[in-house]
């Protein structure tokens, strides 16, 4: 499953707004179309939009019509701002674009053609690193998954949300591949239905047992003893371990705590923002009312009703059992242990 494919200057994306009814590929040949795809959630998931934005920088860099290098850098900054402004919460987006800008700046003594090639190589590297980090998350996370585990997940943190394999679903895949007889409960994830449309689709393709539930059934299945652990992804993690993830994650964490169920967050280091002291500083994206008012183009609420549609919520570190990264499993105290993780020179959002 390859939701992101780079093909000779063209970024091919699996249009996730069409799934599971249609597997449609869209082709992005200019950076504006990449920005549109991110904004419209045709490509989604923090690591995936980071990689897509990196390729958007490459397309933008090759499309700049500038008479000199100074002007070229000025236009490249505009490309970067356009891409970064598409979605504010997922930190991987800003991280990837800033990494591309830094790479260009480090090589500013070279010619424009050479800079374009360097940026393409860097984007390919970002994409490759994401897949490698997901496999590492899967390996570390699998050590926490018991035999015959019943796992509850939320939204989609699988191959579709990354360049490949997945974070939370990477752990599920690793457990399945190791022979553990696991079963997944996937919450539908209103209002965009990423769980129903995407997570279930992925797991069924992999032959992994999955049961779809509505979001408001989570407490019931936990109370009935039907869930052994919860694993979710993340869009941004503050330095104290507070987590921004798809709206509804906080509710699941509260329910897991009440029912003495481990609550794990899976994310690469690029999702950790060491510049933020707590989740209160994470910007929360608010999306269009139509996502709540309509499903597949059909109205489901009275016309004219007011809508509040935050895309994410904040789960405080006190509700999180562990954060599973590509460098290992991090537990409390998160502020101390996350800082130690980055003190060895590891690259991330610091």
UniProtKB/TrEMBL annotation:
EC number, as in UniProt: 5.3.1.23
InterPro entries linked: IF-2B-related (IPR000649), IF-M1Pi (IPR005251), IF_2B-like_C (IPR042529), Initiation_fac_2B_a/b/d (IPR011559), M1Pi_N (IPR027363), NagB/RpiA_transferase-like (IPR037171)
Catalytic residues (UniProt): 235
Pathway assigned to this chain's UniProt record: Amino-acid biosynthesis; L-methionine biosynthesis via salvage pathway; L-methionine from S-methyl-5-thio-alpha-D-ribose 1-phosphate: step 1/6
BP terms from Gene Ontology: L-methionine salvage from methylthioadenosine
Enzyme class at the top of the EC tree: isomerase
Reactions accelerated catalytically: 5-(methylsulfanyl)-alpha-D-ribose 1-phosphate = 5-(methylsulfanyl)-D-ribulose 1-phosphate
A GO molecular function held by the record: S-methyl-5-thioribose-1-phosphate isomerase activity
Residue numbers binding substrate: 44-46, 87, 194, 245-246
Site entry: Transition state stabilizer: 155
Keyword set, alphabetical order: Amino-acid biosynthesis, Isomerase, Methionine biosynthesis
Function as written in the Swiss-Prot or TrEMBL entry: Catalyzes the interconversion of methylthioribose-1-phosphate (MTR-1-P) into methylthioribulose-1-phosphate (MTRu-1-P).
Similarity annotation: Belongs to the EIF-2B alpha/beta/delta subunits family. MtnA subfamily.
Protein name: Methylthioribose-1-phosphate isomerase
Organism of this sequence: Koleobacter methoxysyntrophicus
